[in-house]
Amino acid sequence: MYLDVLFNPAGLTEADVRDKAVIVLEVLRTSTSMVTALHNGAKTIVPAPTLGDAARMAANLDPKVFVLGGEKNGQPISGYQLGNSPLEYTPEAVANRTVIMHTSNLTNAISIARSAPVLVVGCFLNMTRLINFVAQSKHDILVVCGGHKGTAALGDVLCVGQMVELLTNVHKVDAGLSDAAMIAHSTYLYNKNHVVDKLKAGVQGKALEAVGLLGDVPYSCQIDFSGILPVFNPSNLSINAS
Predict the structure, then answer these.
(1) How far is Cα 174 from Cα 7, in angstroms, rounded to an integer?
(2) pTM
(3) Which domain holds residue 18?
């Protein structure tokens, strides 16, 4: 098995995911919100690559059975019931509903990667499920991170680094690692005792603090908060709990 990482989805192509098991990951905050929504009873998540796609999907559904969630350039989207804070995806907001979600980075990456043999969503919240998925995979692994404005995001890097640490040094999985995976691992080992503080001090943490959402950071750093593994279903282009 070989584990590679893209720290942001810029330039991602279908060729990159051919014969790969893909993990899409954006700790702050899309993948965390997806795991939270399914954990809290959402029926399914439909990732929309564009705002227009989201509008077309919503037009075909009864307003009582879906909610729109996400962000554009970090800002709430007019007309959407939910933003991109995982704390908004409560049971009251999402239980038994379809969540149509559009975000700046990850939902388009999911659309590009949907031809992969397997595509799952990960974050700190479902780390053990992620590790078990990787350990049992019959394919090489590609982790596609949402990043931040075309660059790496510290939360994503630390999450991938913890994944590598648990795989190689705890579960003793014999995995080859790309340079990017080794960089993530080293970064995690250096910061592992201060993850929340580091993310609060980072670019995304400061941006969240500026809009009163700093609480998203400690929430998003909880290890194994959920046993949910969101899995992409290519037959209906949705993400469902496993």
Answers:
(1) 23
(2) 0.96
(3) 2-233
